[in-house]
């Protein structure tokens, strides 16, 4: 269960975007084959591809938020120590979180209005709320990703570390604690052996 949670939290956006990209490639490949080989164009391929691309674009926003790979100018922040950088990031993440939480109610109202209107796509007859739900899902997921990074940066502030990602940082912390325990065990064993050796040498000296 822990591995499943880790996979979902770490690779959700990447997995969905890869699936959407493969689906778009297959659909457009079928469309090209039908148009140039069979001489019959599909009426639904471009519409489905467009909707898949919309979902992919919104998931890319969450991915950029999670990976912190959006366009930014951080020369000023780089001048600070890890704790100072983390403090600035906490402030920035707080503003981002408030922004996305502010957008969620508007995306929800937009989705409800689409459901009530009963609008469907012209070619496939797909209910448009399947497409219009993308902003709500995206903004909610972005808020969750920002909250995860917010806790990560607070960890960096408190412990003066510079862990990069969530939830990978949990594994990093576990590895560091394990390493500390192993080092303490080795030191204790070394001190124990040293103490035995010193006692043996002292007994030989007495003899």
**Number of β-strand runs:** 0
Q: N- to C-terminal separation?
A: 63 Å
Shape: elongated
Order of helices and strands: HHHHHHH
Residue runs with pLDDT of under 50 for 5 or more positions: none
Helix-strand category: mainly alpha
Radius of gyration from CA coordinates: 27 Å
Mind summarizing the main beta sheet?
A: none
Averaged pLDDT, please?
78
Strand content: under 5%
Give the fraction of residues assigned to helices: over 70%
Q: How many structural domains are formed by the residues?
A: 2
Number of helices: 7
Description:
By secondary structure, the protein is mainly α. It folds into two domains: 1-165, no CATH class; 167-206. Helix content is 82%, strand content 0%. It has seven helices and no strands. α1 (2-38) packs antiparallel against α2 (45-67) and α2 packs parallel to α6 (134-159). The longest helix is centred in the C-terminal third of the chain and has 39 residues, at 168-206. The mean pLDDT is 78.
Tags for this model:
2 domains; elongated; 7 helices; transmembrane helix; DctQ; transport; 82% helix; membrane; 207 residues; mainly alpha
């Amino acid at each position: 269960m822990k591995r499943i949670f880790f996979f979902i939290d770490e690779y959700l956006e990447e997995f969905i975007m890869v699936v959407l990209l493969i689906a778009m490639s297959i659909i457009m490949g079928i469309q090209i084959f039908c148009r140039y080989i069979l001489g019959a164009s599909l009426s639904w391929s471009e519409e489905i591809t467009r909707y898949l691309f919309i979902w992919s674009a919104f998931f890319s926003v969450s991915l950029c938020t999670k990976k912190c790979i959006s366009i930014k100018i951080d020369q000023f922040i780089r001048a600070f120590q890890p704790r100072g950088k983390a403090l600035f990031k906490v402030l920035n993440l707080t503003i981002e979180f408030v922004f996305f939480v502010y957008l969620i109610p508007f995306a929800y109202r937009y989705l409800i209005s689409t459901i009530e209107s009963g609008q469907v796509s012209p070619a496939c007859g797909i209910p448009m709320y399947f497409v219009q739900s993308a902003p709500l899902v995206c903004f909610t997921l972005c808020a969750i990703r920002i909250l995860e990074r917010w806790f990560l940066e607070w960890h960096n502030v408190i412990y003066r570390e510079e862990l990069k990602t969530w939830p990978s940082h949990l594994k990093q912390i576990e590895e560091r604690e394990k390493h500390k325990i192993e080092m303490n065990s080795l030191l204790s064993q070394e001190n124990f052996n040293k103490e035995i050796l010193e006692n043996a040498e002292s007994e030989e000296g007495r003899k």
